[in-house]
Write a structure and sequence with these properties.
mainly beta; 5-stranded antiparallel beta sheet; 3-stranded antiparallel beta sheet
């Protein structure tokens, strides 16, 4: 009798790295929102700083060393354009997603198809993972 092993994402049991990356891999930040919007979907990938989420609910962003994340962007096939993800809401503090050095932040991405970040340092010490919880 063979054992069933799930190979799709679906509901995750733990945070998983972006598609195409492995545990412990660092990520590359994107340049600007304009640069992201100049790309075609076929150009999205780790080499351009656009990471496929498999439509998960949350992004886990972890910075170490002297690196920090200064902005986060989302892309959905429905809109066919990149937008900045912001925190807060009307009447509450409102601004860019910021993750300081040696912090782990969980951001609700509500099933976006791809995400990208802007990093304030050239040092590759940002990790990214996605989960449903």
């Amino acid at each position: 009798m063979s054992v069933y092993k799930a190979t799709s994402w679906g509901r995750t049991r733990r945070p998983k790295p972006p598609r195409g990356l492995s545990d412990k891999d660092t990520i590359t930040g994107s340049a600007t929102l304009a640069n992201l919007n100049a790309l075609t979907v076929s150009q999205f990938g780790p080499n351009t700083g656009a990471y496929q989420t498999e439509n998960q609910r949350y992004a886990h962003i972890m910075c170490s060393g002297s690196t920090e994340v200064t902005k986060m962007y989302a892309y959905t096939y429905a809109s066919n354009v990149w937008h900045e993800i912001v925190t807060g809401s009307a009447g509450a503090p409102y601004g860019p997603v910021i993750v300081k050095e040696n912090e782990h932040r969980i951001v609700d991405i509500n099933g976006a198809d791809f995400v990208a970040i802007t990093s304030g340092s050239g040092v590759q010490t940002v990790h990214l993972a996605f989960s449903t919880f």
